[in-house]
Amino acid sequence: MRKVHTSKIQTGIWLASMAIASLLATSALAAASGPIEIVTVTAEKRAEDVQKVPIAISAISGDTLDTSGIIGTQDLGMHVPSLRFGSGVTGGENVITLRGFSSQNTTSGGDSPVAYSVDGVTMARTTAVDPEFFDVNRIEVLRGPQGTLYGRNSVGGAINIITNKPDNEFGAYADALFGNYSAWTLRGWANLPLTHGDGGTEVDARVTGVWSQHDPYQKNFSTAPTATHNADGQDFYMVRGQVYFEFSDNVNLLLSGTTTHNGDGVATKLAWGTAPAFAQGRFIGQTYDPDPRHVTKDFPEVYDQKNNFLSATLNWNLGGATLTSITAYTDGKWNASTDADSVALDLAHNNFWTLNSRQYSEEIRLASNDDQKALRWIAGFFYLNEDVKQTFFYQDTGVNAAFFAFDFDNGGTIKTTSWAPFGQIDLDLSKTSMAIPLTITAGVRYSHDQKHIDDFLNFNSLFGGFSLAKNISKSWSQVTGKLGLAYQANDNTMLYANVSRGYLAGGELVGNFPGVYNPETVMNYEAGFKSTFAGDRIQLNGAAYYTNIRDMQVFVQDITGSRIDNAGKAHVEGIELEATAVPVDNLRLNASVALTEAKYDEYKTIDNRYLFAGLSPCFDPFTNPAAICDFKGHRLIQTPEYTVDLGGEYTFDTSIGTITPRADVFFSGDVFFLSANTPRDRQSAYTLTNFHLTWNSTNGKWMADAFVNNAFDKDVISNDGLQSATIGLGFGIDNYTYYAPRTFGLRVGVHL
C-alpha cells in the first residue's frame, strides 16, 4: 500500500490509535459476560450475526441510532468509516460518497455508485433518500463492491435501511421536538395486532409518521416581492403503513407503503466575492457578504418533492430452502427553481428543473435453510424497469454583460431496463471431514442494462442559437462476482480476504450531446478481521483494501448543462478500523478511523471552470492551445484522506430514572469537490462536535433528550458546483452548499 505523506493523516492515525488503544486498555476492567449489543443483519440476503459476515460492514441498530442522535444522512456519515453525505447544488439531491465513489450525477440519466435500498428495494434516484430515520430497526453500510448480491450500481458499496415490522403485540410511541430556528418535529408509530393466529392467519399492522419543520438556515435579505425565504429550511412529512400476514409457520407476506413530501430546498451561496477581480465585473453596486449563510436573492426559489413507495415481500419456507420475492413500485416528482447569482441583480437563474420518475422492480431468490450443512447457497434473479422524464431551463439575462446573455432548455425521457441472474455459495470446511475452520465463498452475477433516450437541447444567445435532438438506445452487459476466504481463528476472532468485481452501468445524459458514457468497472482486493474479547466487552474490526477503477465516471458541470467524462484509471486504497467498548457497566465508548488515498491515475480533460481556453492554467498557445489538463495524481472528489469518530456515554442510575450524557467528536481531513483540486473547491480539515443528555423514566415509559449538534457552530461546505462561467465573465464561480449550523433543542417522548 502506498504511503501517503501528510501531517494531517498522521494526526488522524495518532488520534485513532490513541482512542482505540484506550478502549483496548480497558480490557482489564471487563467482567465475565459482555454487554455489547449483537446486531443481526441481512447484508448477504440471510440473517446473520454481523461479526460472522466476512465483509467490511457497519451495522447500527435502531437503539444506537436513538442514543447517538443519528437522525438523518449527514449524521450517519459521522459514524461510518469512508462514508460522506453531501447536498446537491441545484435543489435537494443527495450526494452519497463511499470509499471514493461519489453520486454527483443526480440527473435523470445518472446512476449512483452506492446502492441505497429500503427493506430490500433498491432506490434508483438519490432524491428518494429520507432526511429522517425513524422507526428503523437498523442501518447496514456495506463497504466495497457488492457485485454479486447487489449488482450493477454498488461499486462503492451499499446502504440498507431496514424498518421496524409489525408484530403481535400492541404498542405505540410518540415524541415531539422543539429547538432553535423555530424547529418542531412530531413523530409516532403504532403497532396493531389485527387477528391472532390460533391455527389461522395472523395479521398485524404498523403505522409510522413524521412531520418536521424548521426555519431556513440561510438568511435572504432581499425585500423584492419575488424573493423567497425558505432555503435550507424544512417542511417534511412521511407516512408509512405496513401489514404483515403470517399464513402459517412457513409462509408470510409483508405489504408496505410510504409517501413523503419535502417542501424546502437546499440553500446555495455563490462565492462571487472570492473570485478574481475580473470575474466580479458583473456585480456592479453589490457588496459581498462573506457570511456563508447570508444572501440577497431576488429570484423565487421553489422546491417541491414527492415520493411514493409500495412493496410486497413474500417468504415461503419450502423445507430445504426459502423462497423470497420482493416486488416494488416507486414514483417521484420533483420541481425546483433557483437563484443563480445570490445577489439583488437578476444576473441568472434556473427557471425550473422538473424530474418525474417511475420504477418497478422484482427480486426473487431461493436460499438454503440448513446452516448446519457444509454448503450454503443462494440463487436469484433481479429485474428493474425505470422511466424518468426531465425538463430544465436556465437563463443568463445579460445584465452588465449583454454579450453573455443566453438561455437553454433541455429535457427528455430515459427508459432503463435491467436484469441479472446471480448466485453465491459458501463452503464451510469445518463441517466437512477436513474440520478446518475455513469458509470459501464464490459468487457470480450477470447484469444486462439497456437504456433508451429521447431528448433535446435548445440554446439561444445574441450570436445565434441551435437545437439538437437524439433518439438512441444503448445496452451493456457485464459479469461481476466475488471470491472470498473466511478463517474462524476462535469463537471470537475471524480473519477474511476477498476479491470482488463491480460494475457501474453506462448511460446517456439527458440534454447533453453526444451524452453517451461507458460503464465503470472495479476490482477490489480486501483483507480484514472481526474480533470480540475481554468477556465480549470489547469489539474491534478492521479492513485494508485496494480498489482499481477503469473508465471512472466523472460528473462535470458545463455551460449548457452537464456531462460525464470516463477517466481512464483511478485507484482507492485505505484502512478502516472500528472499536466499541463497555469497560464497566453503564459506560460505552466507540471509535472509528478511515485512512484513504483516492487518486486519478489517468484523466485528461478541460478545466470546466474556464469558458475560454486562454484563461485556463493549462493553456499554452504553442504546446496546448486546447488547454487540456492532466489530472493524474489529483484526489477524487468528496473523499477526505482521513476521518476519525470518537464517542462516549455514561448512564447514571437515579431514583427518577437513568440520565445519560453523551459526546461525539468527528474529525475530517480536507475535501475537494472538483477534479481540478484547487483551493477554491476545497473544504479544509474540520471538526464537528455533538452533545446529548438523555433521561429515561424508571418504568421506561417516558424519555427526554436535550441536544446540541455542531456545538461550536462550524461552517462546513457540503458540496460545490460551478455556476455558468458567463456570470464570472468567463470564470466559473463556486456555488456552495453547507452542513447545518449549530442546532439545539429538546425531544420528549412517551411509550403508550
Major sheet summary line: 22 strands, antiparallel, barrel
Name the poorly predicted regions.
1-9, 25-33
Average of the residue pLDDT scores = 91
Q: What shape does the CA trace take?
A: globular
What's the number of helices? 3
Structural class: mainly beta
Total number of β-strand segments?
Answer: 44
User: Could you give the distance between the termini?
Assistant: 55 Å
Nearest-angstrom radius of gyration? 26 Å
* Beta content: over 45%
> How much helix is in the residues?
under 10%
Note down, in words, how this protein is organized.
It is built from three helices and 44 strands. The chain has a 22-stranded antiparallel β-barrel. It has a five-stranded mixed sheet with strand order 3-9-10-7-8. A three-stranded antiparallel sheet has the order 4-5-6. Residues 1-9 and 25-33 have low confidence and may be disordered. It is mainly β and 752 residues long. A hairpin with an 8-residue loop joins strand 20 (321-339) and strand 21.
What's the arrangement of secondary structure elements?
Blueprint: H1 7-25, E1 40-41, E2 48-49, E3 57-61, H2 62-67, H3 73-77, E4 83-87, E5 94-98, E6 101-102, E7 114-118, E8 121-122, E9 136-143, E10 157-163, E11 171-179, E12 183-195, E13 202-214, E14 219-220, E15 234-246, E16 251-262, E17 269-270, E18 294-295, E19 302-317, E20 321-339, E21 348-368, E22 375-396, E23 406-428, E24 438-461, E25 464-490, E26 493-504, E27 507-508, E28 516-517, E29 520-533, E30 538-558, E31 561-581, E32 587-602, E33 604-606, E34 628-630, E35 642-650, E36 652-654, E37 657-668, E38 671-672, E39 682-683, E40 686-696, E41 702-709, E42 717-722, E43 734-738, E44 743-751
Parallel strand pairs: 7-10, 14-18
Antiparallel strand pairs: 1-2, 3-9, 4-5, 5-6, 7-8, 9-10, 11-12, 11-44, 12-13, 13-15, 15-16, 16-19, 17-43, 19-20, 20-21, 21-22, 22-23, 23-24, 24-25, 25-26, 26-29, 27-28, 29-30, 30-31, 31-32, 32-35, 33-34, 35-37, 36-37, 37-40, 38-39, 40-41, 41-44, 42-43
